[in-house]
Amino acid sequence: MAVVAAGGAEPMVLSSDARWEIVDLITRRTVTYGTYKQTLGDVLGELTVKPLTGIPVAVAALFAFWSIFGSFAGAS
């Protein structure tokens, strides 16, 4: 693999080990590891994409909108 040097003069030829060292260096600088804390939006998002829980949530949301806006329009 040939990589152009910083000055653009001559290409550098890197061994496989050297390329993996560069990949490791970039990974250490960019990737962070740790625990992920789920938010309410994450939980609701996971619940609504599954049919078993998503369909009842959708029906409940439609009923809630119908109830709220129906009361404003005067229909019952």
What is the gist of this entry?
The chain has helices at 16-30, 40-48, 51-73; strands at 2-4, 11-13. By secondary structure, it is mainly alpha-helical.
Structural commentary:
With 76 residues, this protein is mainly alpha-helical. It has 3 helices and 2 strands; from the N terminus they run E-E-H-H-H.
Kindly list the characteristics that best describe this protein.
single chain; 76 residues; mainly alpha; 2 domains; two-stranded antiparallel ribbon; 62% helix; rod-shaped
Let me know the largest β-sheet. Answer: 2 strands, antiparallel
Please give the count of helices: 3
Proportion of residues in extended strands: 5-15%
Question: Poorly predicted ranges (pLDDT <50, ≥5 residues)?
Answer: none
| Mean pLDDT reading | 85
* End-to-end distance: 73 Å
Side-by-side strand order of the widest sheet:
1-2
How would you sum up the global shape? Answer: rod-shaped
Give a count of the beta strands, DSSP E runs of length 2 or more.
2
Radius of gyration over alpha carbons?
28 Å
- Topology as a string of helices (H) and strands (E): EEHHH
Domains, number: 2
Q: Portion of residues in helices?
A: 55-70%
Protein structure class = mainly alpha
Topology diagram in text:
Layout: E1 2-4, E2 11-13, H1 16-30, H2 40-48, H3 51-73
